[in-house]
Amino acid sequence: MQQALPYRDWLSATVSAAPPSENINSGGEVVSDNKSVRKLVAENAVAVLARKGCCMCHVVKLLLHGHGVNPTIIVVDDQNEDEVTNELAELVTGAEASGNAAAASPKFPAVFVGGELFGGLEEVMGAHISGELVPRLREARALWL
Exposure winner among 48, 57, 80, 112, fewest CB in 10 A? Predict the structure, then answer.
């Protein structure tokens, strides 16, 4: 009997401190240890840094999936939260220098669209309600229609 392949929507990148490798574990998560947060954000049209079990992160993922976007979900473990938060703070500092008002402080979920920090849950929901989210996703080539 043939085994079904996991759907790309449900794959997530887990940032951990294990030796460098990239594989798919039994839960269908992509464990990508050799890539930094900066590199994952740069390589993907939409990336979401999320804490495991966070309800606000879940809402952002559902909203993006509802629009037909397949974001890369970077799940931050409790063990590596400080390390990832420091790297996120560096990304936020760069966003503040470029004039992004949404980059007040590093917090989860952190949504990156087109390699730039878009914001957290409040910014994404605000853009969705005002109608600015879909054009921004199209501009980043995360939506085709």
Answer: 80
